[in-house]
Amino acid sequence: MGDAADFLIGPFGSAFTVNNYTDVEDYRYIRGKDVKPLMLMDNDNVFMPEADYRRLERYALREDDVMISVVGTIGNAALVTAKDLPAIFSCKSSVVRPEKLNPVFLTVYLNCRHGRNLTLRKERGAIQKGLNLDDLKDVLVFEPSQGFQCVVEQTFRGALDLTEQSKGLQEQAEETLLEALGLADWTPPEPLSYSARSSDALAAGRLDAQYFRPVFAEVERRLLATSGAIELGAILDINSRGRQPSYSDEGLPVVNSKHVRTNKVLLDDGNRLAVEAGSPIAIEEGDVLVNGTGVGTIGRAAAYLHKQRALPDNHVTILRTSRVDPIYLAVFLNSLLGQLQIERHIKGSSGQIELYPNDIAKVVFWDAPEHVQVSVRDAVLSAFHKQRQSHNLLEAAKRAVEIAIEDSEDAAMAFLDEAEGAD
Asked: pTM here?
């Protein structure tokens, strides 16, 4: 790879620390954990002040850079796209800037079986594994014809477009819900000061000011003003957390907090397996999963749309209901109305915060008219289908590169044509 690209290593870890993160979303800071196979994770972004960005501008990323994770979970390669910029990256990744290879093709190659194996072969260390720059330069790369590289790029770009369409449909689902409630342009009240009666504090069993923020009362007032407000516990058949799984080489896939994204549950080769025996409950298609712990992930909800049964770990709560559409329920919980109520019921300190099933049951839920629930459901199902198409195209691109290495470019092109036709 050293003969086909330039390289840039990240700044020392002390050059920018978590204490300097900002809420101003102008300049992204890409951490090692953000570098996933093929694409950068973008649902938990952190940002840096402009002054720090300017100070570290020599480490600024460019569109079509290829990032490789070199510390921790090593060997992931992700393409930098325009939506990820402007950004600085951390020392846990290295940047490859191809000169003789199409950057998209190189990203796919490094994630296919042969490219990944050759990369991981270079890892060093025991407890703390890593890849150094010289080892990256020594990784062997496959250089097919420019025409084949371009076809792989087209497949990859098509998958990215489908992913963006999926995100747009997810946003549309929540907009449909808020518009139906007349809250599309609602701004939650945040007064500088407020008070609560001691009798209310004793009745709630809470003495923290956070619980009595006026915005929470306003959310409940608006929901109760509808004709369909009800406590969530009244419509749930099951409201239960999983247990610590008994991991095994065989069994059902385990879903933990990192797999439960907003309105999407990840189920792929990254899910570990566990035996079902002894587990109090299994996840079924149509269940709603809610993250019960973790700053940044607590309260995220998604309907489980996979046919494969799975097991929840002890940080994931299963909600099962026959009263309302589960997809609509998940979108409600992820909406501003749901998240504000969830925020109210979170317990614990910053070190370990919890959202317990009995507190989820207290969330005031809007049982919307059927046409609203159907509209929300249709948008989410369309998003799910487009995300699945995107995943299939990315897997096909990786397999096509493998076929080109093992057989020929003609065989790889024929495979891609068939895969794209199937979608």
From this structure: 0.82
Are both 71 and 118 inside the same structural domain? yes
Q: Do 136 and 266 belong to one domain? A: no
Residue 247: CB atoms within 10 A of its CB come to: 13
Are 301 and 330 within 8 A, CB to CB? yes
CB atoms within 10 A of CB 32: 19
Contact call for residues 95 and 71 (beta carbons, < 8 A): no
Tokens of residue 68, six digits: 């490789």
Distances in Å between the Cα of 272 and the Cα atoms of 193, 269, 414 are: 47, 8, 33
Q: How many CB atoms lie within 10 A of CB 94?
A: 21
**295 contact partners, CB below 8 Å, separation of at least 6:** 350, 353
Which CATH number do you get for residue 77?
3.90.220.20
Query: Quick one: which of 337, 268, 250, 252 has its CA closest to 299?
Result: 337
Instruction: Supply 105's token pair.
Output: 């093709």
How far apart (Å, rounded) are the C-alpha atoms in residues 70 and 91? 8
What are 381-402's pLDDT values in tens digits?
999 999 999 999 999 999 999 9
- Beta strand pairing call for 273-274 and 247-248: antiparallel
Length of the chain in residues, anyone? 423
Q: Is 51 helix (H, G, I), strand (E, B) or coil?
A: helix
- 300, with CB counted inside 10 A (0-12, 13-18, 19+), is buried
Please check whether residues 193 and 246 belong to one and the same domain.
yes
pLDDT of residue 351: 65
Q: Is residue 414 part of a domain?
A: no
Domain that holds residue 55: 5-143
Q: Are 393 and 152 in contact (CB under 8 A)?
A: no
Q: What is the largest CA-CA distance in the chain?
A: 77
- The beta-carbon contacts of 198-206 under 8 Å, at least 24 apart in sequence, are none
Whether 305 and 320 have beta carbons less than 8 Å apart is answered as no
Give bridge partners of residue 77 from the DSSP assignment. Answer: 68
CB 380 within 8 Å of CB 149: no
Per residue in 178-206, pLDDT (tens digit) is 999 888 888 877 778 888 888 888 887 78
Strands 46-47 and 247-248: unpaired
Cβ(289)–Cβ(261) under 8 Å? Answer: no
